[in-house]
Prior knowledge:
By secondary structure, the protein is α/β, with parallel strands linked by helices. The chain has helices at about 15-20, 20-30, 50-55, 60-65, 85-90, 90-100, 110-115, 120-140, 155-160, 205-210, 215-230, 240-245, 250-260, 270-280, and strands at about 5-10, 35-40, 100-110, 145, 170, 185, 190, 195, 235-240, 265.
Amino acid sequence: MSETPVAIRIDVDSARDIALVPELLDLFRLFDIKGTFFVATGPDRLALNLFKHVANPRRYLKLIRSKPLRYRFQSLNGILRNVRVEAACPAALLGITEEGHELGLHGYDHYAWMNEVPNLDETTIKALISRGLKALTAVSASNIAGFASPGFTVTSALLRAIDSFDFSYSSDFKCSEPTSPFYPKTGAETRHVLQVPVSMDSIGELSANGVPEDEIKVRVHESADRWHSKRLPFVLYGHPSSEVGCYAELFSSVLQDLSDDTRFTFLTLAQIARQWKVRV
């Protein structure tokens, strides 16, 4: 029976995420996993998201489950402190590449990206991506092959903008049912950059939505089974501040299960993209 690719995508959205990257690298080393890290660049302003919850009482429970103040002062970056994500811990970025993991771009100014990109034109988005690439390569000196739009924010302008860069693939979609890597369309045009979609919500997202931990494991296994049944890459994603900072034991257990399952083999998203281009 042929093996199904499985990838672990890690989104580094904030300074508190990047501070936990070394712990995540230790975990990956334990399971001999090579992951894909998408690092946001520019100011860490995620604390401003707190105001969205304050303005909507229905989201209070979700806010509490996300443990917003668990990292004390770092949880208030963007309100009390001015911190740039990619510069918060250069040693962590160096560790990612030195240990053979993949480093990709996760946009520029994560908070503004999610709130403003839906209304931006192609030229403006291209400028933001260029700014992000310049910031990330300045501190990592790495070849950036992949891109992932913060918050899975996708517009036609974004997809056209991505085509202007030398990315071998992008990962801007989250699909709840088995979906192969694909070339998206904007109108009648087929874009040139391959999309490698994420396969399900993250552990942190599921928990914040009230899903019990034992049910989360069931959902991961069921999703992996569905993707394997179609021989399609299964892409699980998460964030260091959540999957390591809050749910380390659960996340480790999920990685152990996938590692022990002989149906799957771990690859980076860049490796999956290369395989898929040869396949099609």
